[in-house]
Structure formats: C-alpha cells, structure tokens
Specification:
The chain has one domain. Helices cover 80% and strands 0% of the residues. It has 4 helices and no strands. By secondary structure, the protein is mostly helical. Helix 1 packs antiparallel against helix 2 and helix 2 packs antiparallel against helix 3.
Length: 111
Amino acid sequence: MRSHPSLALFLIGGALIGAGAGAVYQGTTGLVLQATPPENRVAMTSALVIAVFVGLSVPVLGAGVALNEGASAPDTVLGFSILVALGVCVSGWALLGRRPTGSASKAAEYS
C-alpha cells in the first residue's frame, strides 16, 4: 500500500515538532539560568545555544551522509533510533550514578 504525501499533515507535524522543541529549549534555558551564578549566565547560555545547534545539526548531517552513501531511508531511521536509544541509556546510567550525598539525600529517601 502506497501513501500519498499530504501538505497539511507535513505542516501540522512541523508545527508540533517546533512547539515541542521550543518548550524543551525554554525549560532547559530556565534550568541552566536557575543553576548558574549570575556572573556566569552569559557564558552558560551561549554554551547551551551551541549545544542545541550541534545537537540539531549532527543527526541531520549524519542522515545526509548515510543516505548519500547508499543507505535506505528506513535503515537510516532505524540506525538513528538505535543511536538515540543508546544515548538515552548511557545518559540515564551516568545521571543515576551521580546521586546526591549528605543530609539532602537522606531527606529525599524518607519523603
């Protein structure tokens, strides 16, 4: 069964993705600014912007290279999905390994 392209679905999908990315960026910016001392906020905000642009660019460039080298679109999406899943697992493992110590962590255990 072959599906036909739909401009309306494409635009709706783009709007939803853009709204989600904007919400994530806004939340991340708030967290960075809240956790950073005032004298370092400009540097941390610029580092966050660079990280966001690299994070958005690398997958697109990687997909372009994979497709240019002859990989099919489904194989490229599958490979990207596997890499994202591995990244999430490694990030979760790293974050769970950094548990807070001291009285704050004991208070969190009892709440």
